[in-house]
Specification:
alpha/beta, Arc Repressor Mutant, subunit A, D-Maltodextrin-Binding Protein, domain 2, 3 domains, 5-stranded mixed beta sheet, LysR_subst-bd, LysR family transcriptional regulator
């Protein structure tokens, strides 16, 4: 069993197509099929079954995908952890997602501040951070979003925290100890960016409940979000920092479904010429979580 075979299987599972998996892995469809056949032969199981035009995981395939995802993540972590420690401290173009600094630990904030002289920092939406890394406009990105895949670049997940709903203390939701998507479906939601990318798991659930996306407003500033909630009502989706000391007249209620937790990701490309410097930076950031 080879690590590239597991990567090929995970790509096929994500794209439900060998051809699309091949594009995301920069290889041929035949190589994807060969990797999957080799895994099936070695393990004595069937990983995929065809339904229409899609290749879908079997129950055994889903089990292996879960295990393989963890294995690949650990291997990627080793690449970062043992990157050339003697690499020069090159200046890096760093993209950070909107309001990342409101969600990361103080130690991570301090680490980035200490290395500010070697960073060109640009704040953008999660989707733009991803595009910047894929296009080479950014060497590395640190983003906060709900769980999702990044098929066109390398990724290291470095942390996780509970997401919260910020609302007026007079809101009918304020008396609840925890919230699910169904509790939010009839409320106006205030988000830091467009829902399709940063909030994919939440809106998969809301859309299934018939949520009207006209009830979404994008407000990238937390201070502006607080102002809007105070003046017009609504519910903001925020980080756990608001649970410690919510503004006066507000409360922060946790989203109880762990699938809606915030995830912190470092995005990069191992094939980029400056990867050793990126790996050194990523190792430092990871160590602060």
């Amino acid at each position: 069993m080879e690590i590239h075979q597991l990567r090929h299987m995970l790509a096929a599972a994500e794209h439900t197509s060998y051809a699309q998996a091949a594009k995301s892995c920069f290889t041929s469809r035949q190589n994807i099929a060969h990797s999957i056949k080799a895994l099936e032969s070695e393990l004595g199981i069937v990983l995929f079954e065809r339904r229409g035009n899609e290749m879908l995981l079997t129950p055994a395939g889903r089990q292996l995908a879960s295990e393989a995802g963890e294995i690949v993540a650990r291997v990627d972590g080793l690449h970062v952890a043992f990157a050339n420690s003697g690499v020069s401290d090159a200046v890096l173009n760093l993209a950070v997602s909107t309001n990342l600094f409101a969600g990361i630990p103080p130690s991570t904030d301090e680490f980035i501040a200490q290395h500010a002289d070697r960073l060109r920092i640009a704040e953008a939406s999660c989707a733009d951070c991803y595009r910047f890394v894929c296009s080479g406009k950014a060497d590395v990105a640190v983003i906060m979003c709900m769980e999702r895949k990044f098929s066109e670049c390398d990724v290291l997940e470095i942390g996780e925290s509970v997401s919260f709903a910020l609302m007026s203390s007079s809101s009918p939701l304020a008396c609840k100890e925890g919230l699910a998507a169904v509790d939010l479906k009839d409320h106006k939601l205030l988000l830091m960016s467009e829902p399709a990318f940063q909030y994919e798991p939440l809106f998969a659930q809301l859309d299934a409940l018939g949520f009207d996306r006209a009830n979404v407003s994008v407000i990238p500033s937390t201070s502006s979000m607080i102002h809007v909630v105070k003046r017009r009502g609504g519910t903001g989706i925020v980080s756990d920092k608001f649970s410690v000391a919510p503004p006066e007249g507000f409360c922060a209620i946790p989203l109880s479904d762990s699938r809606l937790n915030w995830r912190f990701y470092i995005l990069f490309k191992k094939s980029a010429p400056g990867f050793p410097a990126v790996a050194k930076f990523a190792q430092g950031v990871r160590g602060t979580f």
